[in-house]
């Protein structure tokens, strides 16, 4: 579990599939109202308070994005008290409760596989292994000093997706950002067919 502060009222938590399995949670469980998922959210909020000082008191907007390879990205935004909120009666207008822990959860799934590489040589090696598995695939970003390869898993068969993830995991690291974050804060280096372009211009080092 990795926690990153995005702002005064916003954090991002990255859960790997190992984090989930250690707690007896399947990916599909995140879509259900079950006690162990509530326990996981409580644990995340406790850890967020300890690590980055994020106080989860008050209404929270929780966005859970399931990624095909990396695990899940959980974005938590702390809202402001709304005196007209249906949860508060008029008697609460002058004296709000000390602790309100309510969550509005949004769940979505992404078809995007994202892996980062510290070393461009490792990316070249990965691209040459992937080249025979993918046709005109991949988008390459530069983000926070790392090379990030994005592959859309939507048109691929499940067995091929797992093979691609195995290759990427051998050479790179799963990254806890979404495509939207990369699009906004990263720099596009190769917009299309990144795997093919890298293989065409960069040969393997002997």
UniProtKB/TrEMBL annotation:
The gene is mecA. Belongs to the MecA family. It holds the Pfam family MecA. Coiled coil: none annotated. InterPro entries: MecA_C_sf (IPR038471), Neg-reg_MecA (IPR008681). PANTHER family: ADAPTER PROTEIN MECA, ADAPTER PROTEIN MECA 2. This is Adapter protein MecA. The lineage of its organism: Bacteria, Bacillati, Bacillota, Bacilli, Bacillales. NCBIfam families: PRK02899.1 (NF002781). It comes from the Bacteria.
């Amino acid at each position: 579990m990795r926690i990153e502060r995005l702002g005064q009222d916003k954090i991002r938590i990255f859960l790997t599939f190992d984090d989930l399995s250690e707690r007896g949670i399947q990916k599909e469980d995140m879509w259900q109202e079950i006690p162990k998922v509530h326990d996981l959210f409580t644990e995340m909020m406790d850890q967020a308070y300890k690590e980055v000082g994020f106080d989860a008191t008050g209404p929270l907007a929780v966005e859970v994005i399931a990624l095909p390879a990396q695990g899940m990205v959980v974005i938590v935004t702390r809202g402001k008290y709304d005196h007209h909120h249906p949860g508060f009666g008029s008697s609460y207008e002058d004296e709000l409760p000390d602790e309100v822990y309510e969550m509005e959860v949004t769940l979505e799934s992404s078809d995007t596989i994202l892996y980062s590489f510290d070393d461009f040589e490792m990316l070249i090696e990965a691209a040459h292994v992937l080249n025979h598995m993918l046709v005109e695939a991949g988008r390459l970003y530069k983000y926070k000093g790392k090379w990030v390869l994005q592959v859309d898993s939507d048109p691929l068969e499940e067995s091929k997706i797992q093979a691609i993830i195995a290759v990427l995991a051998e050479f790179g690291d799963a990254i806890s950002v979404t495509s939207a974050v990369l699009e906004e804060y990263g720099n596009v280096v190769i917009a299309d067919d990144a795997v093919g372009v890298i293989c065409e211009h960069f040969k393997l080092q002997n």
